[in-house]
Amino acid sequence: MQIQLPHKVHYIIEAIQTAGYEAYAVGGCIRDSVMGRKPDDWDITTSARPEEIKSLFDRTIDTGIRHGTVTVMIEKEGFEVTTYRIDGEYTDSRHPEKVTFVSDLAEDLRRRDFTINAMAYNETDGLIDLFGGIDDIEKGIVRCVGDARERFGEDALRMMRAVRFSAQLGYVIEDETKAAIKELAPTLNNISAERIQTELVKLLVSDHPDFLRVAYETGITAYVLPEFDICMETEQNNPHHCYDVGEHILHSLAYVEPDKVLRLTMLFHDFGKPQTLLIDENGITHNHGHGLVSEEMAVKILKRLKFDNDTIYKVRKLVRYHDHKPAPDAKSVRRSINRIGEDIFPLLFPVQYADIMAQSDYERDEKLKKLEAVKAIYERILERKECLSLKDLAVTGNDLIAMGMKPGSEIGETLKKLLELVLENPECNNKGYLLSQLPFKD
């Protein structure tokens, strides 16, 4: 099998080989190349020691030199070059206490996580596949190299990576690998929140976000997202729904584009349903106020997983208002935009579409028609550049001060009243007209 190496990767490998050492492109870049996918980055493994790599290239960075990794800079692009190694004992389910450099490529590949990631290639020797990576790609299988319990015992995060790769590639997890995950899932408690976040997001924005179900079935979510497990155990007996809460969430993920904020919103949008569950005299379930509870839970979880403030802000507002449905008239839509925010309001359209599509078909057509009607009104409002917030109001605080109003809360209240008038009648957003309405009478 021939793989087309990028020019810079070829240059690095050739320079190392010319100096008398072995070097191969390795890992995910080879997996993706074999599958006909474009690799995001290229890693290189070599028999040369870090100090020898540093001597071969003009610009290097000691990225992880204690573990044998040096980043070689070619122009402004960096390539990680790592010395063949075997890992020492793992005491924290994540990092080896020490590494030992070796001269045998097979020893280096043996320590890697999955067979599909344990292949190497250079133009001299071709493809090196010692553990059946090609066969597992052809079968669509995620399987550990060697003993799965040893691999997960070395690095517990590999269990989430197994589910993530299955979601990205549409593969199934091999039985022994899955059994090892079920056994060792509690060791995920040793993994940092930042690492958990990274793998969760990669899973959610994959082609198969509903493979979060596999994380539930193998016990992973019990330790990294226990709130989801409760949703998977909460039934919905309501004409608007055909799934339990957890399955509704999983189905909704597939109906929204692979955007981090939108997928996180769909993940969290109904997390408050178990806490707000009521069953009426007819056995019908209701979840009044679940949006606010879901928002509170989303914020708590996002902070626990160390998400950035911008993501938290967007997701919390979308979760809070995911069920907010203005009447399909311009006045209602303008008020909703003002209430929810001009930045957030348009994101509700894909969120509500996904929510509707993951429900039963009861009144689905009517719901979708109303959503489209509101969207059309919203687009006309934008086209007309109608005033939706204080920043677009024709009157400012300085105008009111010029009229003799003292700085303070009275100015703020007056501007709000003027904005209310304009939200009701956008043609009133005229400085002269608005000032003529003052003073307001209580």
What is the radius of gyration computed over CA atoms, rounded to a whole number of angstroms?
28 Å
Contiguous runs where pLDDT drops below 50 for at least 5 residues:
none
Name the beta content range.
5-15%
Query: Helix share of residues?
Result: 40-55%
Largest sheet: 7 strands, mixed
- Report the span from N to C terminus: 82 Å
Structural class by helix and strand composition: alpha+beta
Structure description:
By secondary structure, the protein is α+β, with helices and mostly antiparallel strands. Helix content is 48%, strand content 11%. The strands form 4 sheets. The chain has a 7-stranded mixed sheet. It has a two-stranded antiparallel sheet with strand order 6-7. Strand 12 and strand 13 form a beta hairpin. It is globular, with a radius of gyration of 28 Å.
Strands, helices and their partners?
Elements: H1 7-18, E1 23-26, H2 28-34, E2 43-46, H3 50-56, E3 60-64, E4 69-74, E5 77-83, E6 85-87, E7 99-101, H4 105-110, E8 119-122, E9 126-129, H5 133-139, E10 141-142, H6 148-154, H7 157-169, E11 172-173, H8 175-184, H9 193-204, H10 212-217, H11 221-224, H12 226-232, H13 245-253, H14 260-268, E12 278-279, E13 285-286, H15 290-304, H16 309-321, H17 330-340, H18 348-357, H19 364-383, H20 397-402, H21 409-424, H22 431-436
Parallel strand pairs: 2-5, 10-11
Antiparallel strand pairs: 1-2, 1-8, 3-4, 4-5, 6-7, 8-9, 12-13
